């Protein structure tokens, strides 16, 4: 018997036999719902046979027959009413389970987010892309009309999205471009490390979305519910459908605060903070100034994450402040990294290790944060030993800087564009989707192996712009991205180890060694981070000025 769980209330599966009913009862199911009409197959037991077996086991059973491929709105509504009224959990079945899964999805359209519905169905082995629009439309059959069609639709108005729009318009002003993003504010996220150290004011890292979008770009202020690449369409919440000739996907990634029990309710309180959120970075600085003794714990989750150096940047700048205040010896600093190395590119590790030693930091590799008790100021970690053995460890703290686990956005992860891990599946050089030729992706949501940094997006945007225009017949040759990423590691106030590298972890410095030696802490690199990069971001990258970012072309 094939039982596929959708949630705690319901499981679905293929046709059952009367003999299976007792096994369902023994497994804890308390009701049966049949969605298959009698006589659909020559080997199919009739509903009456199933009902007789269910009665013998004391299970209520209902028949809601639905023709294959013809699930009506009223069928889904009736399914929802039955599901609500029956004792739980319910087992529903049809020929393969697909109709039952579809009925459940449509009945839950107003109760659960679309990505969650699709994910639960997919986990059970059912692909419900064919009913995405209906689920997005509250479980009702929508019209087939597309609300609008554009030459280029860009999903995401962050660094990558605005940069690629600006690069496209710098090459061809007459393009009809739309950016889809529900956010009112655009953030310069690389600045939040500096906010957490009291170097930047938080407000200098934020501008209104309307003020940063390139002139002429249409802003569709809404959230994406689903992708329909076979129809060249994007479905927004509320079932608004936007068509495209070319699609660019760059909505960033999801910070999964909820994945750590106890964390969401204690963030911003009880000494728990994170520079990964605009509203919390000032609290980091407040805690750092206030701490005169005790234990400070800094965490890093499993990869991939955005800006893999940021977890330790917060630690170095905090330790530097405590050293300047003369209290460093009174503070026990721990860095709990779920990974096995301090930094992924070995060339930069020696310089970082000098600071680890100077600040007296205790390195704990293979330590993943799994729970936080804010009022008790206690964190739980799982330590994975070299032999694979796992051990739970409790750590008290006075300051806890948390970097949450990170994943592709839900609507990306459950879409036809995603790879097995949930990231948009693109060619690492051209950034074109591997299966859909008119789809590109860049930034944090792509499955490329580069570091997920703004510097990577700055290099990727011109590559996507050129290749997209080539696909439209407006450019020649092919642009290729080499995996460039940059991580200015703020090891102390006034000095930075400027890590720059491409695919494979190969060091790729922008400046000559006599000017900035990225393997050593540099005052000039700090000046670059503090004074040069913010205006380069706002007035260069977001305006289509490809300073030090022009793509290499091949025929």
TrEMBL record:
Q: Which residues form the Beta-lactamase hydrolase-like protein phosphatase-like domain?
A: 2-110
What are the FAD/NAD(P)-binding domain coordinates in residue numbering? 150-267
Concerning CDD domains, the annotation shows: PTP-bact
> Annotated Gene Ontology MF terms?
FAD binding; hydrolase activity; quinone binding; sulfide:quinone oxidoreductase activity
Q: Which Gene3D superfamilies match?
A: FAD/NAD(P)-binding domain, Protein tyrosine phosphatase superfamily
- Tagged with keyword Flavoprotein: yes
Question: Which InterPro entries does the annotation name?
Answer: BLH_phosphatase-like, FAD/NAD-bd_sf, FAD/NAD-binding_dom, Prot-tyrosine_phosphatase-like, Sulphide_quinone_reductase
GO BP term, pick one = sulfide oxidation, using sulfide:quinone oxidoreductase
**Which cofactor does this sequence's record say it needs?**
FAD
Cited Pfam families: BLH_phosphatase, Pyr_redox_2
Keywords from the UniProt entry = FAD, Flavoprotein, Oxidoreductase, Quinone, Transit peptide
Q: List the NCBIfam families hit by this protein, alphabetically.
A: TIGR01244 family sulfur transferase
- PANTHER family, sorted: SULFIDE:QUINONE OXIDOREDUCTASE, SULFIDE:QUINONE OXIDOREDUCTASE, MITOCHONDRIAL
Query: What's the protein here called?
Result: Sulfide:quinone oxidoreductase
């Amino acid at each position: 018997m094939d039982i596929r769980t959708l949630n705690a209330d319901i499981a679905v599966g293929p046709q059952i036999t009367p003999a299976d009913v007792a096994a369902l009862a023994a497994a804890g199911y308390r009701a049966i719902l049949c969605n298959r009409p009698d006589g659909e197959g020559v080997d199919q037991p009739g509903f009456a046979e199933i009902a007789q077996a269910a009665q013998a086991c004391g299970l209520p059973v209902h028949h809601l027959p639905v023709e294959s491929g013809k699930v009506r709105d009223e069928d889904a509504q009736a399914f929802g009413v039955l599901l609500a009224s029956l004792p739980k959990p319910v087992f529903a079945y049809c020929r393969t389970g697909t109709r039952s899964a579809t009925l459940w999805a449509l009945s839950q359209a107003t109760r659960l987010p679309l990505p969650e519905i699709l994910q639960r169905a997919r986990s059970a082995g059912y692909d419900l892309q064919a009913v995405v629009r209906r689920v997005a439309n509250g479980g009702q059959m929508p019209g087939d009309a597309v609300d609008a069609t554009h030459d280029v639709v860009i999903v995401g108005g962050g660094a990558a999205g605005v940069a690629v729009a600006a690069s496209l318009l710098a090459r061809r002003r007459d393009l009809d471009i739309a950016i889809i993003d529900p956010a009112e504010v655009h953030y310069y996220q690389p600045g939040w490390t500096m906010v957490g150290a009291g170097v930047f004011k938080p407000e200098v890292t934020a501008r209104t979305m309307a003020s940063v979008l390139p002139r002429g770009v249409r802003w569709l202020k809404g959230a994406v519910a689903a992708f329909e690449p076979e129809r060249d369409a994007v479905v927004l919440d509320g079932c608004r459908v936007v068509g495209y000739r070319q699609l660019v996907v760059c909505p960033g990634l999801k910070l999964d605060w909820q994945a750590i029990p106890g964390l969401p309710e204690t963030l911003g309180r009880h000494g728990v903070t994170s520079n990964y959120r605009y509203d919390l970075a000032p609290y980091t600085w407040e805690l750092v100034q206030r701490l005169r003794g005790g234990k400070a714990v800094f965490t890093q989750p499993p990869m991939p994450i955005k800006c893999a150096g940021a977890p330790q940047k917060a630690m170095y700048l905090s330790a530097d402040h405590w050293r300047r205040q003369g209290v460093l010896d009174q503070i026990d600093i721990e860095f709990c990294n779920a990974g096995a190395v301090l930094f992924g590119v070995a060339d930069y590790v020696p310089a970082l290790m000098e600071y680890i030693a100077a600040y007296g930091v205790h390195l704990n590799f293979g330590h993943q944060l799994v729970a936080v008790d804010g009022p008790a100021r206690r964190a739980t970690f799982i330590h994975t030993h070299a032999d694979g053995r796992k051990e739970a460890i409790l750590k008290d703290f006075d300051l806890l800087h948390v970097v949450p686990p990170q994943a592709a956005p839900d609507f990306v992860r459950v879409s036809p564009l995603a790879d097995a891990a949930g990231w948009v599946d693109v060619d690492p050089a051209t950034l074109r989707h591997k299966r859909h030729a008119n789809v590109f992706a860049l930034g944090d949501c792509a499955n490329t192996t580069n570091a997920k940094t703004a510097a990577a997006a700055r290099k990727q945007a011109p590559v996507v712009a050129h290749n997209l225009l080539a696909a439209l017949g407006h450019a020649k040759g092919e642009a290729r991205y080499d995996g460039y990423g940059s991580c200015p590691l703020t090891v102390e106030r006034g000095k930075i180890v400027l890590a720059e590298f491409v695919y494979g972890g190969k060091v790729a410095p922008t400046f000559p060694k006599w000017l900035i030696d990225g393997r050593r802490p540099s005052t000039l690199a700090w000046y670059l981070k503090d004074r040069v990069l913010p205006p380069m971001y706002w007035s260069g990258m977001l305006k289509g000025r490809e300073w030090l970012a022009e793509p290499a072309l091949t025929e």
